[in-house]
Structures are given as structure tokens and as C-alpha cells.
Design brief:
The chain is mostly helical. A two-stranded antiparallel sheet has the order 1-2. The protein is globular.
Length: 378
């Protein structure tokens, strides 16, 4: 999913399109990624993870190959969205859902470790692609990616052929539409699912503000593209650390509390961008932001497993992950639109904070309802 970002300038030049049209493949890739998390998640619930991951590898290889022979930006965009975007989804939300069935005491760190692969890919793949572009063109690079995917993902997926232990699929969950007492429902699975959907949307609209616009913000301040890219790299590196730490924390205090702490920390980091715009301070704030936000998205998978039926984990985690992708897409556009209207990015940061507060409010509500249920059952 990172490849299209790196080859975008070369694709734009070859097809002779403007930057807006050249951005369409990335947009469709993200849409495919979001929808794929939900649709493939449903498939995982029914068939296990082996076939979806193999299907993902085949779709990715086909997508990169078709994109490599595309004669125009439309065909390139369709290959990215329908095959590459959807194919990438199988190894995020659906894979996390399947993995969650294998662990009880250490589920948090297991899910967080697997989710860190998504961030590490953002470090490793662009480096490989840039190296390839030095010696060849983007089309040959795409064929190379297709080959690497086939010879790595398909054999590795065979290690996933054993289904999860049956006992974990029937373990009682914290809520799962249960009752606080006889005939007194707390939160139905449907209500909780849509609350998590809105929470995921809110946190990632806020998350996208620095991640999508930090380079442009640095250019506006006169620091240049390279400084902004360094700050983005700091965010990603901090995100890996954050995901692993949040996994350990989730095992100790639960997914909702971990998610809530991450959201509070992210909100505080967004506030820090308002008074501090010096170069050194922006580096520090960007690191703080990365350390705060990285663990939020994987925490949703833990919350779903704690509160909702285990046999529906794939589609339910996939739906929440789709909401976070939608939030990133919406937030990236919304921040730019607000900046066009108001000038400096200050109003865009305030908008992100407002969305973050919505996320915090929802998770506080879920936490309090969970406590009410526990008290009623005591």
C-alpha cells in the first residue's frame, strides 16, 4: 500500500496528468483497503485466515502486474483500488482478528506486534522501491514487488493453515449483548459496534492532521520538505514503539482503558502543536505524537474481542478498521480544506482536537457502561 506513494511522481510524469489525477490511485487504494478489511473479515469468520491471505497475495501480485502494464491513469488507478488496495486488507484487520483467537492472557501484545508490521512496511518498502527506481523504471519495480509478494506471502501463509483453538471461540466476553441483570441489557452488540465505528472515525480524523500535513506545515513555516519528512519518520518510529507498549498495557488494564489513554495522549499532543512551532520543538512534539497515537488502532481489535462475539471478530474488527481508514481519508482532506479557508494550520489542529474529544467521550461512555455491568453482576 506504500508503493503508490513512492512512484507517484514518475507515474504523473509518464501519463502526463496533474497532481490531483495522479493522487487518484492512492485514494482508490485506501478505499479498497478500508472496504477490504470488512469484506475479507467476513470471509475470515467463515473460512479461517489461510485462504484469504493466499487470495490477498494473488490479488496483490495481479494488481501490481496489471498496474505495471497500464496504458493510462484510469487503468492504473483501477488496478490499485480493486486489487492492491483490497489485497492489502487481508493482512491487517482480518489477520488481527484471527490472531486474537490464539491468545487470552497475552492477546494485547500479540495483536500489537502483528499490527506493527503495517508501520514497519512504511519504513522498509519505500527504501526498497527508491533503490529499485535508481536502476530501473517504476513498471519494472512493480513487477519486482509482485514477484516478492508471491515468493514470500504464499509460503508464509501456509503456517496459518491450522484453525484457532475451538475453546477460544466460545469464551464468554465482557459484554457481547449480555445483560447487567435479568432482562436489563447494557449495550447491544449493534449499538456498541456503531459507537466503536464513530470512535474510530473521530480518532483518525484527528490522527491524520499531523501525519498527512506535517510536511506541508514545515514548508509553510519555512523549514522545508526534508525537515517535515524527518518528523513524519519520527511519528512512524514512535508509532511502532507505541503499538508494542499499548499491547503490554492492554494485557494489564484492558482494551478500553488502553484506547482511552492513547486518545487522551494524542489529544494532548495535538494541543502541543498550537504553542510550539520552532524546529526543535516540532521534532519533539512529533515524537510525542507518534508515541501517543500508534497504539490506538490496534486497541480497537482488543476492545472488539473483549466486548463482542468472538465468532464475528473478523467482520466487526474489519468494520472498525474501515472507519479508521475513512477517518484518515476524511481528516487529510478536511485539514487541507480548513487551511485553504483560514490560512495557518491552527484552525485545522483545533478541528482535529474536536474530533479527538468525540472519540474520548465515546470511550468514556463505553468504559462507564462496562463498569455498571460489572457492578450489577457482582
Amino acid at each position: 500500500m506504500w508503493a503508490v506513494v513512492v512512484v507517484l511522481p514518475a507515474v504523473q510524469t509518464e501519463f502526463g496528468v496533474d497532481r490531483g489525477d495522479a493522487s487518484l490511485p492512492y485514494t482508490l487504494t485506501m478505499i479498497g483497503f478500508g472496504l477490504g478489511n470488512y469484506l475479507i473479515g467476513r470471509w475470515v469468520d467463515r473460512a479461517g485466515v489461510l485462504l484469504p491471505v493466499i487470495g490477498s497475495a494473488l490479488a496483490l501480485a495481479a494488481g501490481f502486474s496489471l498496474a505495471a502494464v497500464s496504458s493510462n491513469i484510469l487503468l492504473f488507478s483501477l488496478a490499485q483500488g480493486l486489487l492492491v488496495g483490497t489485497g492489502t486488507a487481508a493482512t491487517f484487520g482480518p489477520l488481527l482478528a484471527d490472531l486474537s483467537h490464539w491468545f487470552q492472557k497475552r492477546r494485547g501484545i500479540a495483536v500489537a506486534a502483528a499490527a506493527s508490521g503495517n508501520y514497519l512496511a512504511g519504513i522498509l518498502w519505500p527504501t526498497l522501491i527508491k533503490w529499485s527506481l535508481v536502476s530501473t523504471d517504476w513498471r519494472s519495480t512493480y513487477f519486482l514487488i509482485a514477484a516478492i509478494i508471491l515468493v514470500t506471502m504464499v509460503p508464509l501463509s501456509l503456517f496459518l493453515r491450522q484453525p484457532p483453538p475451538e475453546r477460544t471461540l466460545h469464551t464468554a466476553t465482557v459484554m457481547s449483548g449480555a445483560s447487567a441483570g435479568p432482562g436489563k441489557p447494557v449495550l447491544s452488540p449493534t449499538v456498541l459496534q456503531w459507537l466503536l465505528f464513530l470512535a474510530g472515525l473521530g480518532c483518525c480524523v484527528a490522527m491524520s492532521m499531523p501525519q498527512v500535513h506535517i510536511v506541508a506545515y514545515c514548508v509553510d513555516l519555512g523549514y522545508g520538505v526534508a525537515r517535515g519528512a524527518d518528523m513524519l519518520a519520527l511519528m512512524v518510529a514512535g508509532g511502532v514503539v507505541s503499538r508494542l507498549l499499548s499491547g503490554v498495557l492492554a494485557d494489564a488494564i484492558g482494551g478500553v482503558r488502553t484506547l482511552l489513554l492513547g486518545s487522551l495522549a494524542q489529544c494532548a499532543a495535538l494541543f502541543l502543536y498550537l504553542p510550539f512551532d520552532g524546529l526543535a520543538s516540532l521534532y519533539l512534539v512529533s515524537l510525542i505524537f507518534g508515541l501517543s497515537q500508534g497504539g490506538i488502532v490496534p486497541s480497537y481489535a482488543i476492545v472488539v474481542r473483549e466486548y463482542l462475539p468472538a465468532h464475528e471478530a473478523g467482520q466487526r474488527i474489519g468494520l472498525v478498521i474501515a472507519a479508521t481508514i475513512l477517518g484518515m481519508a476524511l481528516g487529510g482532506w478536511l485539514s487541507g480544506w480548513i487551511d485553504d479557508l483560514t490560512g495557518p494550520y491552527e484552525a485545522a489542529f483545533l478541528d482535529g482536537i474536536a474530533w479527538n474529544l468525540m472519540n474520548i467521550s465515546i470511550m468514556v461512555f463505553v468504559l462507564l457502561r462496562g463498569k455498571q455491568r460489572q457492578e450489577a453482576l457482582a
